[in-house]
Amino acid sequence: MPHQRGFARLLARSSMMSTYPLPQTYGVVVPVKPPAVAKSRLRPLGDEARAELVVAFAVDTVTATLAASTVARVLVVTDDHRLAAELEALGVDVIPDGTSGDLNGSLVLAAAELRRRSPGLRVAALCADLPALRSEELDRALADAADGLSFVADADGIGTTMVTARSLASFRPRFGSGSRQRHLDAGGHEIAAADVPTLRRDVDTPSDLHAARRLGLGSRTSTALAGLRL
Predict the structure, then answer these.
(1) Alpha carbons 120 and 6: distance in angstroms, whole number
(2) Hey, what domains does the chain have and what are their CATH numbers?
(3) Per-residue pLDDT in tens (0 to 9) along the chain, 230 residues
């Protein structure tokens, strides 16, 4: 009788595992423009504040990404040496931009490098200006990704904040103006069902920053804003 009960528990556990598979593990590429030139639409806040916020956004985005249970590795792409050192201290890998001026081409090269380092991972590319990002929302979105090209639209429904793919062959990001429609036109699967407001809230303008603040900012951006008295 004890053996039968033990077998029944084992069978039930096996059934649960087949019904609820473990989440797929991802490697995430995060491109970051040098703070000296990034986020020009934040210039009304002042150049010093703009550059400091670029760094803060990236640190909070990467910190939340590292905390996601579905993420095994983060690879940052940047040409700024100071920022690279700060992000490496968080536990991520950093490489220089392979094709300056071509974001999508740079992401494809970075994804290939990520897969070279960790061949078993799915690939995702994530914007670095998500200062309110919560790791559980990133997990939720990645769990809803299809095998081919998938993406998350931004809060305005025009741009894109994340692109994923199971293979390098299907990883063909189309970031840029009107990228949501361009990803749809390419046959991408829009991750629309997941409730992920902090993943959608990228920051390009002061009004975007206020919207992100209402969602709850990461600690680095909160500290930066307090120091800048914004």
Answers:
(1) 34
(2) 24-228 (3.90.550.10)
(3) 444 444 344 434 333 333 333 455 999 999 999 999 999 999 999 999 999 999 999 999 999 999 999 999 999 999 999 999 999 999 999 999 988 789 999 999 999 999 999 999 999 999 999 999 999 999 999 999 999 999 999 999 999 999 999 999 999 999 999 999 999 999 999 999 779 999 999 999 999 999 999 999 999 999 999 988 77
Per the CB < 8 A criterion, the answer to whether 193 and 155 are in contact is no
Tokens 């008295």 sit at which residue? 229
**Strands (E) located in 100-219:** 122-126, 150-153, 160-165, 189-190
204's tokens:
């390009």
50: enclosing H helix or E strand = helix 47-67
Q: Among candidates 76, 98, 61, which has minimal Cα distance to 27?
A: 76
